[in-house]
Amino acid sequence: MPASRQPSAAPARLPSDPRFWRSPVRGVRFTSVLGLVLLGGITVLFVTGLLSYAAYNPDLAAVNDKTPEKGLLGFYLFAWPTGPHWLYRVTQGVHVTLGIVLVPVLLAKLWSVIPRLFALPPARSAGRALERVSLLLLVGGALFQFATGLLDIQLEYLFPGSFYVLHFYGAWVFMGAFVAHVALRLPRTVRVLRHGVAPGERDELAAPAPAGATVSRRGALVVVGAGSLLLLVTSVGRSFDGTWRRVALLTPRGGAEPGGGPNGFQINKTARKAGIVAADTGERWRLTLAGPAGRLRLSRAQLLALEQHTAALPIACVEGWSTADQHWRGVRLRDLAALAGYEDGSGPPPAVLVESLQVSGPFRSVALRDNQVADPRSLLALTVNGADLSPDHGFPARVIVPAAPGVMNTKWVARMTFGDPR
Questions:
Q1: Do 188 and 311 belong to one domain?
Q2: Which of 43, 149, 160, 360 has its CA 20 to 30 A from that of 295?
């Protein structure tokens, strides 16, 4: 008898074959829900990112500008205000925390549309070609922006390359693709969310031959939401104190505070990491003031003999962490401007260039605007919470300015030059 025929193996399929993708979860409604969340979230990320860049006053002086030749992309820059004093703490905390929370949503969205990246032919019309190009730029830009942001949070000053340049220009490229994609897809997204897929209309994201369901689309959205909630709980506490900070386990500056006592709060860089040694900050240390009155050198004892003022201000860093208000005490910057030759009554205090004992690294020199110098809460701080500054918090003297990014609050101050810093 003839041998019975064995069933032939199913032909191997490539990702360009719609039957390659078999998950029953994919569909335009599932993708539309994720897309709407990302539309709102990414818009907030972009706006708060631009605000963060403006907070560095990059158009004030070259030492502040880490993205040279920005050209027309700096059209929106403005003088960063000093109030409310928690402004940067909120805007940057939202920027970084929201970016972390959106990671599961972004990954789910990319997973839901991945069949379209392999669809052949690449374009059937000019409109489809534009949509595919915007989709490729959107996916690449999203991965790049989120990856560089997360790397900066985790690696901080060890970031490979210039984070400021990469993230700034990457944001504009990504947002260009994002706006184009939204313009092309938003009408259909809204229609699908309101009315579902129209009768007779093909759901281009649904699998033509789906496998058996293991989770519903609603269940998949719950999983994504649970992932975002977990990331929120384990990261948002970096912007608070107490219990919330102790559960922020997935990000630097979470967990317990670094030590106790008046100086027991978060820092962005230790004295040792900055190369500061005791000989730099001992009895021989002097603050050099420069201005119309010439050069003036003041010891710490002489600074303590000047009129002292107190300000309750937080420290807020570009990586998204911050402290509660700390009670700083020292000499007002506008009083130091008067000593440098800008007497009260002769006009508002000028901008100032602040230089640190730190010999290298980003923002060892920083320019502050005249409104920052004039604010009565802006201090050259000598003590904090009733005690001398610790070496890690900038002893013998540091700048503290309301609403300014942490790196603008220069530690281990060596020289202050009042006048146009350009």
A1: no
A2: 360
CA 8 from centroid of its chain's CA atoms: 56
Cβ-contact 207, 111 below 8 angstroms: no
- For 148, the domain range is 18-239
Query: Cα 355–360–364 angle (5° rounding)?
Result: 30
Amino acid identity at 68: P
Half-sphere exposure of residue 403: CA atoms within 13 angstroms, side-chain side = 20
Condensed to tens digits (0 to 9), the pLDDT of residues 321-361 reads 999 999 999 999 999 999 999 986 556 789 999 999 998 87
Cα separation, 33 vs 267, whole angstroms: 40
Co-location of 212 and 307 in the same domain? no
3-class SS string, 257-309: CCCCCCCCCCCCCCHHHHCCCHHHHCCCCCEEEEECCEEEEECHHHHHHCCCE
The answer to the question of residue 25 being in a domain is yes
Both 113 and 60 in a single domain?
A: yes
Report the C-alpha gap between 72 and 102 in whole angstroms: 29
- pTM of this structure: 0.90
Query: Domain containing 361 — which CATH number?
Result: 3.90.420.10
Cα separation, 359 vs 352, in Å, equals 19
Sign (positive/negative) of CA torsion 395, 397, 401, 407?
negative
How many Cβ atoms from other residues are within 10 Å of residue 84's Cβ? Answer: 11
Q: Is 405 helix (H, G, I), strand (E, B) or coil?
A: strand
Helix (H) or strand (E) holding 354, with range, is strand 352-356
